[in-house]
Amino acid sequence: MKLVLSWAAKIASVTLTSGLLMSVSAVHAADVPKGPAMPDAKAGERLFNEGDLTRGIVACSSCHGAAGNSVLPENPNLAAQPHEYIYKQLTEFQPKAGSDVALRLGVGGNPAVMSAMVMPLTDEDMQNVSLYLAEQPLTSPSSASDEDLVSQGQQIWRGGIASKNVPACAACHLANGAGIPGEYPRLGGQFASYLEQQLELFRAGYRNNNEMMTDIAARLSDAEIKAVSDYAAGLR
């Protein structure tokens, strides 16, 4: 009888302890803050195509084309761009806390056109639009247009310029210009004139959101910028 009672007591003790642990675990689980929600690509699609006039948000498609495939060289193709990259750029058109100036400025150091477009966007909006664009195929890539620049552009892209300590573009953006998701943007199929302008902005210090690119662009001449931009436009 004593043995039976002893085992019964042990079982009761284990049951009680387990119940207490489960209760404590449940309380602790409830106290753990939830992480950020997964971006909503459908919400991003609606905002991209329709905007939100109640918040002063213009439809992104009016400048960047259907599903991010632009038909205007001054407005870059955004389709198939890594969502991390798009999100980062959108946030950098907005001034950071404690600053009146955004990291990405336009020609002459003036506010970029995109700054006015991005100001009404919330962080959630930017995440949603970025994910939507990353999931879209690039159906209207640009192309190289100047045969005289191909050789020089290819050399810079693949081998850099040793005499100027300029690294090969392919080292970060890959041989086909696809880039590395989460690290470096896709440049293949982008408009040559847009790429050229961005390199000039990096060189002038007006696009101040990537120290490495600022240093590289500072070593490039106008002719070298034009050549490598045109070459990148033709990559697939």
Would you write up a description of this structure?
The protein has 236 residues and is mainly alpha-helical. It folds into two domains: 41-134, Cytochrome Bc1 Complex, Chain D, domain 2; 147-233, Orthogonal Bundle (Cytochrome Bc1 Complex, Chain D, domain 2), CATH 1.10.760.10. It has helices at residues 2-31, 41-50, 61-64, 83-92, 113-118, 123-134, 150-159, 170-173, 192-204, 211-218, 222-233. Helix 4 (83-92) runs antiparallel to helix 6 and helix 9 packs antiparallel against helix 11. The longest helix has 30 residues, at 2-31. Mean pLDDT is 89; it is low at 1-30.
CATH topology-level name of the largest domain: Cytochrome Bc1 Complex, Chain D, domain 2
Low-pLDDT segments: 1-30
The run of helices and strands is HHHHHHHHHHH
Strand content: under 5%
Alpha-carbon distance between the termini?
83 Å
CATH class of the largest domain: Mainly Alpha
Please state the CA-atom Rg, rounded to the nearest Å.
Answer: 26 Å
| Number of separate strands | 0
**Largest sheet properties:** none
- The secondary-structure class comes to mainly alpha
- Tally of individual helices: 11
Q: State the share of residues found in helices, binned by percent.
A: 40-55%
Task: Output the CATH homologous superfamily of the largest domain.
Answer: Cytochrome c-like domain
CATH architecture of the largest domain: Orthogonal Bundle
